[in-house]
């Protein structure tokens, strides 16, 4: 748990705000989550938040707006999370006010999602559905298990099934993406007829938290040393999670059934773009047409929860001008190494909007899962 510098005002109370500033070597110090004790029920708490100045050598501090959502998130029991009122910017400070009928409360950048949450989720899904199995992708470099959900129904062989890979949280600070993954999994094991069709015709792998070490520590993950998880998709990855995913996806590619790859993220604070894609000129048909069809189907379902600003379903290109390690970005790597029909996308779910809640994120995931079913329903069945 690590907020940026905070000043908590609780008149007449014993105050405690637990947290620490993130280690910039382990990624952007922009995510925060802490508990306040000693509150007098009914009193107004003022939380004043200032961006971290922690940096690596020769780097500038991260733009503080990354750490300052328009509305912070709070919880009395650590389970049910809701937005604060809109915060107010006062020079370098962001000010949030809370009036609570409790003696303690949790406050966070957004609804937290820890590795323990991921483990609980995959376990509960496997207990609810005979078609879902709680598994482990691997163990991290710090020996933490990486929970994974594996879903398939019926007697079709593996080679007769579409291959679907969904993962979230390659950047540890992007907690909303894990809730999107959970929404995907919840819909997948539901009694919806379309969910049943997808389970019966596909084999689905879902990883709610990729960077479990930085997520567990509360570090940002983005631009971590030597590189973050989403820049590590090389011939010799540094992170155990990437080694494991490349091996499993490689198996799907060898079998000719790497059909849909989805990497879930949260974008910049004012970024309205849903999808990030490889430059079209690098791809060949039918991948281009199939990718564009999937984007159209997904956008039609998900755009209803986007911020009320001018929107377009045009994706952002992540080619040579985007980042020096653009070839080592996960969705790009899968596109370049996948099958001719592989659809590989990065989806960014907005975190700085009134619908950036657990309910909103899960709705994105459910609609994304329904999109996968609709898209695969248009594809020739595996023989």
Describe this structure in words.
The protein has eight helices and 17 strands. It is α+β, with helices and mostly antiparallel strands. Strands 10-11-13-12-14-17-15-16 form an eight-stranded mixed β-sheet, with helices on both faces. Strands 2-3-9-5-6 form a five-stranded antiparallel β-sheet, with no helix packed on it. The longest helix is centred in the C-terminal third of the chain and has 20 residues, at 358-377. The protein has helices at 115-128, 175-188, 193-201, 212-217, 240-254, 287-302, 330-337, 358-377; strands at residues 5-9, 16-17, 33-37, 44-50, 73-75, 82-83, 88-90, 93-99, 104-108, 132-139, 145-151, 162-168, 202-207, 258-265, 275-277, 316-317, 343-348. A hairpin with a 6-residue loop joins strand 5 and strand 6. The chain has two domains: 5-108, Immunoglobulin-like; 115-377, Zn peptidases (Aminopeptidase, 3-Layer(aba) Sandwich).
Instruction: Report the CATH C-level class of the largest domain.
Output: Alpha Beta
Specify the overall morphology.
globular
Radius of gyration: 21 Å
CATH architecture classification of the largest domain: 3-Layer(aba) Sandwich
Work out the strand percent.
15-25%
CATH homology superfamily name of the largest domain? Zn peptidases
Run of helices and strands: EEEEEEEEEHEEEHHEHHEEHEHEH
Q: Which percent bin holds the helix content?
A: 25-40%
Main beta-sheet strand count, sense and barrel state = 8 strands, mixed
Largest sheet, order of strands side by side? 10-11-13-12-14-17-15-16
